[in-house]
């Protein structure tokens, strides 16, 4: 997308976003992740259900149209009272995420701005479905991309190789590969009827003639048993959205820190775990969104504490873990009449972890001039979310091209060259 003349003053910044390599994925530099060690590689996906406002998470304070379109909710510039935390000459981090700044400063946090789905839907349900299936615009896909990834990963399967944290099975793990479930709250691993050996023996006898049910029972009991054993040595201490369907059952950010610490600790203690998914709701801020203070700021603070707790729980495993944070779509550039923002297009993806070559805001920045906006109202999508994920799967998890094609079954050259998101 060509740049409006107004943004020529930012051309140096944009060239730096693209010059990391001659090979780029839709404007995404190919050296976002570090070279790997021999330890097992892990991937945690955190989905922010409800469409978080990426223009507040990583705000383009260098754009004149940013503050002009948000007279009440624009974040003050870096250095001002309640101002953004400066990332570079164009972008700043929301001050409520100050606890993550150490990850940025340590080169373990990066952002890919103006990223998202090529499908133009502004429906929470459809957009979340497309992100989790990995096939935007195609509703007939029966499984989720993380389940396909689990089936494609090299190495031996294990009952806890993949963990879904939450009260309901997510679309992203739908499929034939077995996934262990970790509940929410301090009683997530509390013993239940299914953990009773007599109950297990009775169900095994009942399902003996049904191979599918027998396999499900075996995977469930083995997974729960392995998680309980991994945690046996002890644990570290540790507003609804406008649209009630936007969160899809995900808990709010307020309760995220304790659950994230528990998830990170389990991943660290269980050497078999490679994949994990969790979701956080409460981001559909149509009303009274706030700026440096208010409901969005409070939720971001809780989210930041949770991501920092996840890193703490991972401990030494953090150096071999990539955490991807994403939302179904972004929000409008201009605030609405209720002091909030409505459903938009482009958003920002977060990459956090030891392998991430961070300290950079990446992606092709299209600008906020009206001529550059999608439908004249939204940040344009210049990087397909699958390009970011594909690069992580190839460069971090070592997935070959043939396996990547089964995870993201889309035609096109971009899947033959997923790029380098690991620093060499």
From TrEMBL:
Q: Which PROSITE patterns match?
A: TAT (PS51318)
Against InterPro entries, the record matches this protein to: DUF1501, TAT_signal
Q: Which PANTHER family match?
A: BLL7424 PROTEIN, DUF1501 DOMAIN-CONTAINING PROTEIN
Q: What is this protein called?
A: DUF1501 domain-containing protein
């Amino acid at each position: 997308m060509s740049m409006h003349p107004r943004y020529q003053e930012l051309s140096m910044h944009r060239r730096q976003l693209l010059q990391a390599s001659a090979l780029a994925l839709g404007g995404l530099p190919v050296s976002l992740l570090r070279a790997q060690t021999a330890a097992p590689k892990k991937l945690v996906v955190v989905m922010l259900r409800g469409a978080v406002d990426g223009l507040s998470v990583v705000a383009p304070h260098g754009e004149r149209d940013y503050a002009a379109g948000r007279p009440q909710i624009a974040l003050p510039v870096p250095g001002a009272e309640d101002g953004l935390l400066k990332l570079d000459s164009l972008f700043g981090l929301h001050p409520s995420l100050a606890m993550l700044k150490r990850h940025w400063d340590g080169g373990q946090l990066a952002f890919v701005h103006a990223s998202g789905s090529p499908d133009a839907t502004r429906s929470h349900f459809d957009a979340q479905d497309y992100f989790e299936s990995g096939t935007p615009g195609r509703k007939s896909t029966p499984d989720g991309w993380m389940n396909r990834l689990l089936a494609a990963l090299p190495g031996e399967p294990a009952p806890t190789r993949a963990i879904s944290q939450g009260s309901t099975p997510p679309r992203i793990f739908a499929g034939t590969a077995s996934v262990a479930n970790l509940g929410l709250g301090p009683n997530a691993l509390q013993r239940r009827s299914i953990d009773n050996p007599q109950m297990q023996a009775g169900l095994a006898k009942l399902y003996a003639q049904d191979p599918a049910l027998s396999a499900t029972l075996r995977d469930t009991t083995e997974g729960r048993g392995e998680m309980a054993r991994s945690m046996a040595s002890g644990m570290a201490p540790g507003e609804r959205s406008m649209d009630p369907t936007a969160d899809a059952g995900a808990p709010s950010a307020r309760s995220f820190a304790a659950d994230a610490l528990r998830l990170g600790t389990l991943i660290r203690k269980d050497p078999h775990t490679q994949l994990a998914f969790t979701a956080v709701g409460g981001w559909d801020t149509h009303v009274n969104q706030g700026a440096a203070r208010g409901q969005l700021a409070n939720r971001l603070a809780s989210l930041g504490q949770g991501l920092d707790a996840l890193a703490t729980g991972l401990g030494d495993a953090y150096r071999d873990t990539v955490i991807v944070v994403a939302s179904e779509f972004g929000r409008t550039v201009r605030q609405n009449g209720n002091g909030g923002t409505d459903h938009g297009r482009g958003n920002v993806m977060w990459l956090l972890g030891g392998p991430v070559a961070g300290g950079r805001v990446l992606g092709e920045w299209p600008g906020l001039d009206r001529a550059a906006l999608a439908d004249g109202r939204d940040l344009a999508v210049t990087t397909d979310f699958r390009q970011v994920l594909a690069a992580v799967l190839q460069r971090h998890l070592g997935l070959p091209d043939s396996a990547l094609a089964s995870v993201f079954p889309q035609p096109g050259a971009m899947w033959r060259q997923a790029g380098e998101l690991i620093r060499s």
